[in-house]
Amino acid sequence: MPKSRDGAAPPDTRGGTAPLPLVTFCAGALALGLVLVGTLILQGVYASRDDPISALCAEELVVDRETGRLSAGARGVCNIVEAFLSGTQTELLVAGSVLGAITIVVGFSIYRRMPSKRMREQAIAGAVLGVHAITAAVVIEWFRSGNLFTFARNFFNFAVLDGAFDGFVRGAVNTLQLAFSGEVGGIVIGLILSVLVLSDRRVVRAPASIYINFFRGTPLIWQLPFFFFLLTLGFGIHLPTFQAAAIVFALNTGAYAAEVFRAGIQSIEKGQMEAARSLGMTYMQAMRFAIVPQAVRRVIPPLMNEFVILIKDTSLVIVLGLTAEQLEIY
After folding, report:
1. Is 151 exposed, middle or buried (0-12, 13-18, 19+ CB in 10 A)?
2. How many CB atoms lie within 10 A of CB 116?
3. Mutual orientation of helices 241-266 and 165-197 as an angle, nearest 10°?
4. Cβ distance 320 to 241 under 8 Å?
5. 18-29: burial string, b at 16+ Cβ within 10 Å, e else
6. Percentage of residues in the chain with pLDDT exceeding 70?
């Protein structure tokens, strides 16, 4: 426990604990662990099995019924499904739900009578963990009632990834290239637009405002094909799909970056502009040497958020139809 300057330990404002609230908290954690951790351990146990594929799995995962050939990764898919449908999984869900219900009743009934803050927090935490355990058990049971074979075959069949590491690396590199090019271009466009939209002249503000509202008000998944075909068919500029997508990402990011820069510039105290103008600087010189450098430091966090969003938005480029070398990580 840290000590104060005079060497005395600070008072314990939370108070001590007692067996009942502590047991309630541990029981709630155990209930959630039975449902979640128990499910994961069970999946690991079944994944390590080398038993023959059951008749049910063979019926669901057969590709050619004449030869009896199974789909790729059939054993892994079968292990996942059988683990979820096993009696052990049912026992884990029931045990976790019952224990969770007990902690809910005990925790919410005793916490008001606890004499210290630590005891009350332990009682409430145990009850809330019990709620989490029951919720997780209900969700897993609901999942078990669905078409597990189809879901596991399409989303958890890791055998299809064998030998695909080079493609994964290429997709990751392409994703970063799209994101970085879009972000850099968007920052340049956004900085210019932010200066224009802050102008006192309406004829200067209007085009910038129209640009920002257009790109912020229309979905990116529409902008990609529209501007791609506008360049190729409308203007006759035949760019590779990858480069055209990077341009659209820059145009889109520029609209959002403009609002970020505008807010950053307006957050600078008016006295900074007045001081710069009093030194004889023009408006653009004051923006360049005094205002924008300070605003850039303030807008770095929101710009990083835009970059993270852009990395995820690169998956939309698939609507343009890329070649195998241009595919991104999606």
Report:
1. middle
2. 16
3. 40
4. yes
5. bebbeebbebbb
6. 92
For residues 283-304, one letter each, b for 16 or more C-beta atoms within 10 angstroms of the residue's C-beta and e for the rest, the string is: eeebbeebbbeebeeebeebbe
Which residues of the chain have a pLDDT value below 50?
A: none
Structure tokens at 79: 């292990």
d(CA 39, CA 85): 11
Q: Give which of 128, 129, 137 is closest to 96, Cα–Cα.
A: 137
CB 95 within 8 A of CB 36: no
Alpha helices in the chain (DSSP H): 19-47, 55-61, 74-85, 87-110, 117-144, 148-155, 165-197, 202-217, 220-229, 241-266, 270-278, 283-286, 292-313
7: helix, strand or coil: coil
CA distances from 275 to 282, 293, 328 (A): 11, 15, 49
Q: Give backbone dihedrals phi and psi of 71, rounded to 5 degrees, phi first.
A: -70, 160
Q: What pLDDT shows up at residue 13?
A: 59
pLDDT tens for 109-158 read 998 888 888 999 999 999 999 999 999 999 999 999 988 888 888 888 77
How many Cα atoms are found within 13 Å in the side-chain-facing hemisphere of 295?
28
* CA-based nearest residue to 257, from 175, 173, 187, 155: 187
What is the residue type of 222?
A: W
Can you tell me the distance from the alpha carbon of 180 to that of 307, in angstroms, rounded to the nearest whole number?
A: 8
Return d(Cα 264, Cα 302) in angstroms, integer. Answer: 10
pLDDT tens digit string along 149-198?
A: 888 888 887 777 777 778 888 888 999 999 999 999 999 999 999 989 98
Q: How far apart are CA 206 and CA 191, in angstroms?
A: 16
DSSP 3-state of 114: coil
By residue count, the chain amounts to 330
Find the largest Cα–Cα distance for the chain. 89
